[in-house]
């Protein structure tokens, strides 16, 4: 399985994350560990959606 870069940024209220390779795939959380875990789940969900729509992954 391909690995995707995750960019995590600290915000005033916690953390936000996104993957530059997957437009619209984002996550936020108050804790860094949680935003990283959520982002891994968001990527899997995003890729499943692309597959279901017959779009290239």
Order of helices and strands: EEEH
Strand content: 15-25%
Largest sheet: 3 strands, antiparallel
Strand line-up across the major sheet: 1-2-3
Question: How much is the average pLDDT?
Answer: 95
Computed Rg: 12 Å
- Number of helix segments? 1
- Catalogue the unreliable spans: none
**DSSP, total strands:** 3
Short description:
The protein is α+β, with helices and mostly antiparallel strands and 57 residues long. It has one helix at 32-52, and strands at 7-10, 15-18, 26-29.
Question: Which SSEs are present, and which pair or pack?
Answer:
Layout: E1 7-10, E2 15-18, E3 26-29, H1 32-52
Antiparallel strand pairs: 1-2, 2-3
Molecular structure report:
The protein has a single domain (7-52), classed as Double Stranded RNA Binding Domain (2-Layer Sandwich), CATH 3.30.160. 37% of the residues lie in helices and 21% in strands. The protein has 1 helix and 3 strands, in the order βββα. It has a 3-stranded antiparallel β-sheet with strand order 1-2-3, covered by helices on one side. The longest helix is centred in the last third of the chain and has 21 residues, at 32-52. The model has no long low-confidence stretch (mean pLDDT 95).
């Amino acid at each position: 399985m391909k690995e995707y870069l995750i960019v995590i940024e600290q915000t005033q209220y916690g953390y936000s994350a996104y993957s530059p390779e997957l437009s619209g795939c984002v996550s936020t959380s108050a804790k860094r560990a949680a935003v990283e875990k959520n982002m891994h789940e968001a990527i899997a969900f995003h890729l499943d959606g692309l597959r279901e729509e017959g779009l290239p992954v």
